[in-house]
Design the sequence.
């Protein structure tokens, strides 16, 4: 006997109807757990920062991350004393770990801007809870990224030569070079990200000012909240400015990795000289960035008990974004292989064959396995997308894969030069590894400071999406609705 | 602002955004002009209710963006054509397509900075002191979960006794007199 067909929104199919995490109105997982009030949300987030007791776990991690940052300091000090010769870069592989890490870190930053800007423009309110720390992640990733080109130039004290300043021996930069474009793209990206992040925090800092009990905190948050008092006139200008900043950050974020891909694509090297690079770099950036947001969000929500604000819905949605961007990246890999064959270019074909089966072919297969095979076969499943442990695992896998992608692009294109007599190899030295591990330490260090002292979840944006923020007509209020 | 004395205004506290919007709408209809609402998150309806429809942030952003882009383009042209011409493989000096990327970035940079700092300037921020912070219930609620309507003493209709009676009609949870 056939059961009568019940019309249901697709998303509800796998869910038990009694699940209180599911909003009966939409059939979707809730963005905020039910039963929250403006005050309960404020208290929850304020308590993380304005507490006299810092959790021991925070100190433990902080020490560990501080150790990592110290490794970076050591490695960079030695680098400045001895020069870039302590790294493995040489001819023909003149771009080693420094540029790999630069591209990797800046890519990670892109998800923060995507979440805070692009999803804001698309009115994806689920993003509200994760936008702030995704933006913080962007800024700290850009800090780590921006350092690499500077220390890679060998004489970082002359780094200002890249700027069009009139007081350096009448020498001006070459504006036709993608490397010079990078200076503008990355510096603009860093500035706009910081401004967007800070402006977004001002109302929440005002909440901190008003809720803090001790004088120092009141003074500190009072100063950095600029005297925000929540006037609706201010709010309207603030909303306009946020929207405009989001509208500006969107083309900006797309341009940054595009310009970085020009560093490669404009060169005539086989393996680099391809038009697929800009979109493929941007998609890869967002892919790795979302992986990093998951890497950060999953331990954070557990540690600070934020499961009611960063819900399974967030994890699920981020899994979906990764699925999409992962496929774009897969298309990029496919197109590289196709062009190697279709161009009928001997060098191009050799570079690609060498990439897959040459002495460093293993790196290519690591990236295929961790960027395509593992995530793109499993992220289809809603069960796995809402399985927190699995998503954490996937985030690490994708981050590793994306690092290997940059490794493969840079090293395997360079180490086989046009003439076999110029062939070389690349083996990173301990200083290369120390700088890389050091930036991971610095990133964690800055992030821990952020979660301890600043509002990591935008309270004002969460208040906006609560049901009580809806303004009901007078008749409904009188009817007791 | 020079130091003032006396009453800044009367501050009514509401529990829900709906109550605030209804009160503000009515006050506007009854001829009140010098007033403001204070909310813990943006309430667009409240801004509409007090007759605040447009703001100048977009204009500032446009001006900033145009100026940034123009400045960068002209700088590159001046450097590459006049100040320091580099002849590389006989390519044209005025190679404008190559100048687009920095121009684009600076358009965004200065538009963004104008949006952010222009917004703060239009709001008169930073201003660390404001009379409203003197109200005992303001700081506990305005940035957390309460909704305030302030009728300012500068309004010609303002009279301490009458304005208080007027606000009481909306059944706020409290009406407080705010001193400078």
Sequence:
């Amino acid at each position: 006997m056939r059961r009568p067909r019940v019309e249901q929104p697709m998303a509800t199919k796998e869910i038990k109807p009694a699940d209180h995490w599911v909003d009966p109105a939409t059939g979707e997982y809730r963005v905020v757990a039910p039963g929250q009030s403006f005050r309960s949300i404020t208290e929850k987030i304020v308590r993380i920062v304005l507490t006299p007791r810092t959790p021991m776990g925070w100190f433990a991690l902080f020490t560990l991350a501080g150790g990592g940052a110290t490794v970076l300091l050591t490695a960079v000090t030695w680098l400045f004393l001895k020069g870039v010769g302590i790294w493995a870069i040489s001819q023909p592989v003149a771009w080693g770990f420094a540029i790999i890490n630069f591209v990797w870190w800046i890519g990670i930053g892109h998800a923060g801007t995507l979440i805070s800007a692009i999803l804001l423009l698309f009115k994806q309110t689920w993003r509200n809870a994760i936008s702030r720390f995704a933006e913080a992640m962007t800024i700290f990733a850009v800090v780590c990224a921006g350092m690499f080109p500077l220390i890679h130039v060998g004489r970082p004290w002359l780094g200002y030569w890249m700027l069009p300043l009139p007081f350096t021996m009448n020498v001006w930069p070459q504006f036709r070079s993608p490397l010079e474009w990078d200076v503008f793209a990355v510096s603009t990206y860093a500035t706009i990200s910081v401004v967007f992040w800070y402006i977004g925090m001002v109302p929440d800092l005002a909440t901190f000012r008003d809720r803090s009990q001790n004088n120092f905190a009141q003074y500190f948050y009072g100063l950095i909240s600029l005297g925000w008092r929540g006037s609706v006139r201010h709010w309207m200008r603030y909303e306009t400015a946020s929207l405009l900043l989001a509208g500006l950050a969107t083309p900006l974020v797309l341009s940054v990795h595009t310009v970085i891909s020009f560093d490669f694509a404009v060169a005539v090297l086989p393996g680099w000289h391809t038009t697929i690079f800009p979109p493929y770099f941007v998609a890869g950036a967002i892919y790795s960035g979302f992986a990093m947001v998951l890497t950060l969000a999953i331990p954070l929500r557990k540690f600070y008990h934020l499961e009611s604000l960063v819900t399974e819905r967030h994890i699920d949605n981020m899994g979906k974004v990764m699925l999409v961007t992962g496929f774009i990246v897969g298309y990029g890999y496919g197109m590289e292989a196709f062009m190697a064959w279709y161009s009928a270019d001997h060098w191009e074909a050799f570079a690609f064959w060498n990439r897959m089966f040459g002495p460093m072919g293993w790196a290519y297969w690591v990236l295929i396995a961790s960027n395509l095979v593992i995530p793109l076969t499993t992220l289809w499943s809603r069960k796995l997308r809402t399985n927190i442990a699995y998503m954490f695992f996937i985030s690490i896998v994708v981050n590793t894969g994306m690092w290997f992608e940059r490794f493969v692009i840079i090293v395997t294109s360079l180490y086989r030069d046009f003439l076999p007599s110029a062939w070389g190899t690349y083996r990173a030295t301990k200083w290369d590894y120390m700088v890389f591990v050091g930036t991971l330490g610095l990133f964690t260090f800055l992030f821990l400071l952020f979660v301890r002292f600043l509002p990591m979840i935008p309270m004002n944006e969460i208040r906006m999406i609560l049901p009580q923020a809806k303004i009901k007509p007078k008749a409904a209020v009188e009817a007791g609705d | 602002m020079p130091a003032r004395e006396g009453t800044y205004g009367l501050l009514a506290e509401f529990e829900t955004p709906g109550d605030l919007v209804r009160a503000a709408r009515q006050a506007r209809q009854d001829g009140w002009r010098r007033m403001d609402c204070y909310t813990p998150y943006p309430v667009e309806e409240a801004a509409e209710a007090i007759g605040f429809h447009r703001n100048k942030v977009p204009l500032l952003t446009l001006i900033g963006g145009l100026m940034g882009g123009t400045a960068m383009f002209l700088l590159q042209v001046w450097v590459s054509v006049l100040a320091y011409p580099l002849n590389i493989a006989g390519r044209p000096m005025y190679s404008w397509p190559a100048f687009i990327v920095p121009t684009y970035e600076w358009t965004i940079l200065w538009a963004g900075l104008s949006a952010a700092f222009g917004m703060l300037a239009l709001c008169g921020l930073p201003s660390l002191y404001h009379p409203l912070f003197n109200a005992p219930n303001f700081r506990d609620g305005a940035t957390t979960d309460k909704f305030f309507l302030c009728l300012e003493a500068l309004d010609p209709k303002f009279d301490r006794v009458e304005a208080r009676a007027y606000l009481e009609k909306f059944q706020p949870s409290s009406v407080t007199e705010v001193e400078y």
User: Anything to note?
Assistant: The CA atoms of residues 30 and 114 of chain B lie 37 Å apart. The longest helix of chain B spans residues 96-123.
